Amino acid sequence: MSTTATWDTQGNWAMKDNNKGLSEAGLRRMREVLARHMESGGIPGLVALVGRGEDTHVETMGTLHEGGGAPMRRDTIFRLASLSKPITAAAVMLLVEECRLRLDDPVDEWLPELADRQVLRSIDSPLEDTVPALRPITVRDLLTFTFGFGAVLAAPDTYPIQVAMRELGLDGSAPEAGPDEWLGRLGRLPLMHQPGTLWQYHTGSDVLGVLVQRVAGQSFEAFLRERLFGPLGMKDSGFHVPADKIDRLPTSYAHDPQTGGLVVWDEAAGGKYSSPPVFERGGDGLVSTVDDYHAFYRMLLNKGVHRGERILSRASVELMTTDHLTPEQKVEKDAFGDHFGRHGGYGFGMAVRTHRRDLASVGQFGWDGGLGTTAYADPVEGLTGILFTQAAMDSLDTPRLHKDFWTTAYQAIAD
Questions:
Q1: CA–CA distance, 109 with 116 (Å, rounded to integer)
Q2: DSSP label at residue 177
Q3: At a CB cut-off of 8 Å and minimum separation 6, what does 228 contact?
Q4: Which residues of the chain have pLDDT under 50?
Q5: Cα dist. 124→49, 160, 188, 258 in Å?
Q6: Residues of 80-89 as b/e, b for ≥16 C-beta within 10 angstroms?
Q7: pLDDT digits 0-9 by tens, 143-185
Q8: How far is CA 301 from the centre of its chain?
Q9: Cβ proximity of 158 and 137 under 8 Å
């Protein structure tokens, strides 16, 4: 049920003394806690990874599909959901380092659909009740989710802008449009808030995927494969699972709101991720394995270095993992409760811990995915943790599993 492997660490580990790696007693405790969650029946399967120093420990439990069948394996491929966002931010920073993008330049040259914006007078205004944007949207606005448009944290169709988003297929309820068509639809709507004033979830990452594609002159996936996935050895990461690997993709489940039981959200063979998408979404479109994703996080934890090769500059990694939001920009994020508000800060495409609320150190960075994924790195402890499941975070089962995983991950640190 578990395996342990050694990671060939190179680069500069400037962490607190973490050479002792992981504790066998702590890992046994983790195994027991994860097993209890599996016995409850709310999670068909999971793959959990914790890494520290040169120790990497993986637990695999349960099955790919509810009711039995093929077991979870270390190389099981999962839908990352919003764990795609940090990868998208890293791709943008590669272009910033090449001076093909600048953080505080307007995006109008590359994304003319977002130029000369109008802004709703208030979130509940009719679509025609607008004022001009006070300034253009910048790359930094997109990276920090403050460009003025995003998920509305209210019941569906509460406001006219939500109705318009649904009618244009911008809420995910309609068949996929290609990136240019999607951005054109977005450009037909006013912004919800003035650029730079308020954090709003998700949409910025999807826009960034289009931006990378246009600046790089190649598909978003081709850029990721050339500049990140290839150098990091992320051989099972991409925007779909090819036919010769589809047997490693679990069924994705949501929960019935009345009974709490599992209901199929996406099949493996023939499902949403079994063929290339028409829009390679930077916000939630990627698939990966725990080892692939660990390589990406180890690179960030190692200040941009992977096995002796520099992928990102140290300065870029530090910028990505620094809180960039003012208290005023955080109002909506922090009001949404534990999921968005517990970290304190937000960097580029991921959360950043600014206060000690639980066992995680100040400076921990990472994010969670709505389809059942969680991944964070703690520079103070030199700790990386990744837990992938195929059960969505729309009931108490998966969030509780995630919290217990993180509690035991910190217990696994060998002092």
A1: 12
A2: -
A3: 87, 90, 91, 94, 234, 296, 311
A4: 1-18
A5: 44, 7, 18, 30
A6: bbbbbbbbbb
A7: 999 999 999 988 999 999 999 999 999 987 666 899 999 999 9
A8: 16
A9: no
